Amino acid sequence: MSDAEELRRRTRELLAQHPPGSTGRLEFLRARFDAGLAWVHCPVGLGGLGAPRTLQSVVDAELAAAGAPDNDPRRIGIGLGMAAPTILEHGTEEQKRRYLRPLWTGEEVWCQLFSEPGAGSDLAALGTRAVREDGGDWVVDGQKVWTSSAHLARWAILIARTDPDVPKHRGITYFVCDMTDPGVEVRPLRQITGEAEFNEVFLTGVRIPDARRLGGVGDGWRVAQTTLMNERVSISGMALPREGGMIGPVAKTWRERPELRTHDLHQRLLKLWVEAEVARFTGERLRQQLVAGRPGPEGSGMKLAFARLNQEISGLEVELRGEEGLSYDDWTMRRPELVDFTGRDAGYRYLRSKGNSIEGGTSEVLLNIVAERVLGLPAEPRTDKDVAWKDLAR
Question: Which residues are catalytic, by number?
Answer without folding.
Answer: 231
